[in-house]
């Protein structure tokens, strides 16, 4: 594993070159995940595909009037794609789909306003008569949006104050986050919002330069609108993010209270999105336990709740929960995440201690409310992706005011980078294997015995190798760009 010296001289790559290499490597890494699964592979993607195709209203050949107000006629392959392989990990994605010009009436889509329209409306621009080409374009655009927003925030952040963005995202995102980010599931924007909103708002609160304040405020508002405009429950994460930043930087001054008006505005926008749609219950009514008493639901779910948290790191499957991750993935990522929290919470001041406790409380209360409100148990319907934004927020506030290098030695940083790189490479290989041949076929070579792949000029093994190297390169660059300067604490008033 690489070892990084914890001195200011560790980064020998010019800043401008580094600023180009890091986002390029991240985009390639996310692009490999965009190609790692077929159309319909992310959770409920049949629903999201039809919603995207109808995201700009009725269009001939793409989305036409249905038999009822909450129904539409859409290309049949949008509904067939997931049924080809979902829930059976030994099935590849090789089944033949119907022609795209064959339309079918369905109520499977966002036709009754269950989700906010922003996510679907944006990606509807890329909908066409070619399912594969459209899905690839949409996923790559989603990856590019993530890279653009996080890179802009990274470049604005002063050296010494980047740990809550970079390392909180890195230790929280493998494998579930990196699978979702370039996907067509609206949860991808929930993840992006969770990573960026609270950091941008916190920097806005403590920044004194007018231009930088405007930039941070703009990024915070954009992240809030994107998150809340994709999933209504992201409004909760937006409010929590604003609250966390406000606690960390609270001061009883006119400047703080005036600046907080932006936070109030963000919360109002987020709540407005939440109230404008019908996404009040996350799970379907037919998954309810029905006869379970309130005490049974609360006690049973409290005991099982850590299983939901650990699912973020790979103990639950990807996709339709049918792509099982090897132990090397989830053991590695769980250890690194736990170590990151342990390092981050060392000797916290009162504000940070309160914020970390509040973030952890949210990680318990929010999923517990969903589970009890909808009458289900952990493992029945509520999925780890619903708590991923809270996992990210907890890591971020734990790493608040940490050094960019987290105070780790070169060897320790090498273990973190190496561990995350290996976990990503194994997860990516496993995910590609599951769709190319089904997981009943083994071996390193993904091209041999391939039953499905995109009609592109390169094979799945190439995507796996390049994507794995790209993420490792990104993490190495992040580590080398870190330095041992402690961010100055905000002045107590």
TrEMBL record:
Top-rank taxon, per record: Bacteria
Keywords: Membrane, Transmembrane, Transmembrane helix
Organism for this UniProt entry: Protaetiibacter intestinalis
Transmembrane segments: 15-36, 136-157, 164-181, 187-205, 217-250, 256-277, 328-346, 353-372, 384-401, 413-432, 452-478
Name of the featured protein: DUF2142 domain-containing protein
Family matches, as InterPro entries: DUF2142_membrane (IPR018674)
